[in-house]
């Protein structure tokens, strides 16, 4: 079962990595450290919330889920 705290932890770890990628690409394209940081920050704020709600929505979708066994030995 996915808990809310697990969804938050997954969202934060993914956003850290994704922000580094976005920041690096923006810095390479613009050559401006400050602008790259602003782009990375805006990307993080928007996508962190989007990812969390996307993850929570998928918990309610049964597609691809397997039923847990009634008992385990």
Helix and strand arrangement:
Blueprint: H1 4-30, H2 33-59
Helix pairs in contact: 1-2
What's the number of extended β-strand segments? Answer: 0
Taking the sheet with the most strands, its summary is: none
Tally of separate domains: 1
Which blocks of ≥5 consecutive residues have pLDDT under 50?
none
Which radius of gyration do the C-alpha atoms yield?
17 Å
Shape assignment: elongated
Query: Helicity, in percent?
Result: over 70%
Explain this structure:
Helix content is 74%, strand content 0%. The protein has helices at 4-30, 33-59. The mean pLDDT is 88. With 73 residues, it is mainly α. The chain has one domain (4-59).
Short descriptors:
2 helices, elongated, 0% strand, 74% helix, 73 residues, mainly alpha
Short summary:
The chain is mainly α and 73 residues long.
């Amino acid at each position: 079962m996915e808990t809310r705290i697990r969804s938050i932890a997954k969202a934060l770890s993914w956003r850290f990595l994704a922000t580094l990628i976005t920041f690096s690409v923006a810095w390479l394209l613009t050559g401006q450290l400050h602008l790259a940081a602003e782009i990375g920050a805006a990307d993080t704020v928007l996508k962190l919330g989007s990812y969390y709600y996307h993850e929570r929505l998928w918990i309610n979708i049964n597609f691809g889920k397997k039923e847990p066994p009634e008992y385990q030995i």
